[in-house]
Amino acid sequence: MAEAGEAYWNPAEMGEDRIAAFDEMRSKCPVAYSDRLGWSVFRYKDVVAVAADPATFSNVRVNHGESAPAAMRGIPLEFDPPEHARYRRLLMPLFSAGRMKAFAPRLRALAEKDLKALTTGDPVAVIASFADPFPVRVICELLGWPHDDWRFIKRMSEDVRIAMAERDANRMAAAHRAWADYILPVIATRRAKPADDATSWLLDQQLDGQPLSETEMVSILRLLLVAGHGTTTASLGIIIAYLAANPDRQEMLRSNPDAIPSAIEEMLRWSSPLAGMQRTATSDTEIDGNAVTKGDRVALMFAAANRDPEVFPDADQCVFGRSPNRHLVFGSGIHSCLGSPLARLELKIVLTELLAASRRFELAGTVPAVDPASWPTNDLQDYSIIVTR
Ligand code: HEM
Question: For the chain, where are the E strands, in sequence order?
């Protein structure tokens, strides 16, 4: 791990206690370079500053010096202003308060059904039996796609993740072809027979007076299918593990369900589901005295910023009811999470239903650690709980 003033670090050496590794980097070497990630910024103020400057730090994916072609980029995440704003404006109504309110009963029904896998009274693996499938099924429900496709969607998303992490343009192109082969027939079906779902809604939308092209439709749907579940799976893993290990906190929420939403925010600040996201420098610049060269990648370490003692008193404590709680779990700046209303609703409904359906739940085994292979999410290794009804 880094010594004070040393600007090099090796993310592969973080081990299972990632949070401790991030804490150490933030205090000893807050702007660090690694072969794998390029620059990484760990302090809250640096993460916010980089995120606030999309002209200098671009979201267009770059592979070996070349910008990925537009058709291979996810809309809106991998676009910069002004295109980003056009797409984001178009998509915002999908996650409006009204749409979320109307979607809540369907989400609750899905949660009640899927939570049965956890509440058997026997030790059950949380990630495999619930936290993996549920968030994918939620996206399928929103888009109007078959729930049974969840394994396929998960596998295809994993392919994209690996191609991105390894910056393997050929693997990425193959993954994108596979996604298009999967998505285009669904679009054709909905075009012929619209339904009450987000896919049909998208087909009805116009951008500058024109309907969306097939390429734009595929880019949007692919991003929603890829971006919407890995982070939610990681969040469910973190929240359920924390409460299983802390029965007093569990009891507190069971007797006061109104406190659930703010407790979720704090559990995810304290142990964040998404380690970081990257940008690419569009010109030579500097961060806190470190020379950043045009084309360098810069990782915004949300998980480290969320425990910055400059911003959060007792940052390493999980303080239910913390206020203010200006965490960066959902990012910062123009790209901050578009799906956060859905993510928050999903987590609130699951936790409310799980607490109501149980007298207590506890770990059947040891406290889970982060899977060292996971990136950019902080996925917990699978663990089991026993739910007493
Ligand atoms: C707890 C779960 C989630 C977490 C922690 C999370 C976190 C984030 C973060 C940190 C970003 C910013 C990325 C960046 O700055 O580069 C982001 C962007 C995004 N997220 Fe989420 N997310 C979650 C769930 C979801 C869900 C459920 C959806 C949709 C179904 C979604 C859709 C998106 C989209 C479309 C963007 C790109 C926004 C833009 O570029 O303007 N996310 N998310």
Answer: 31-34, 38-41, 57-58, 62-63, 66-67, 124-125, 206-207, 210-211, 277-281, 285-287, 290-292, 297-300, 360-363, 384-388
Q: Which of 154, 342, 142, 361 is nearest to 246 (CA)?
A: 361
Residues in CB range of 116: below 8 A, 6 or more apart: none
71 has a pLDDT exceeding 90: no
Name the nearest CA neighbour of 20 among 236, 318, 261, 271. 271
CA distance 346 to 341: 9
Owner of token pair 């099924």: 137
Assess if residue 33 is contained within a domain. Answer: yes
The token pair that represents 198 in the structure block: 């987000």
Spatial distance between the Cα atoms of 41 and 33, rounded to a whole number of angstroms = 9
Domain that holds residue 117: 11-388
What is the residue with the minimal CA distance to atom 43 of ligand 1? 337
Out of 337, 344, 379, give the residue to mutate to test ligand 1, the one with the largest number of ligand atoms within 8 Å of its CB: 337
Question: With 90 as the cut, is the pLDDT of residue 1 above it?
Answer: no
Domain annotation covers residue 1:
no
Determine the length of the chain: 389
Residues facing 281 on adjacent strands: 57
- Range in 99-103, 173-177, 246-250, 337-341 the model is least confident about: 173-177
Asked if residue 4 belongs to a domain, the reply is no
Count of domains in the chain? Answer: 1
pLDDT digits (tens, 9 = 90+) for 253-296: 999 999 999 999 999 999 999 999 999 999 999 999 999 999 99
Nearest atom in ligand 1 to 347's CA: 1
> Which residue has its alpha carbon closest to ligand 1 atom 32?
339
State if residue 77 touches ligand 1 by the CB under 6 angstroms criterion. Answer: yes
In a domain, 265, yes or no: yes
List, for residues 150-184, the tens digit of each pLDDT value: 999 999 999 988 888 888 888 888 999 999 999 99
384: left (phi over 0), alpha (psi -120 to 50) or beta: beta
- In CATH, what number is assigned to the domain containing residue 330? 1.10.630.10
Q: Is 231 in the pocket of ligand 1 (CB under 6 A)?
A: yes
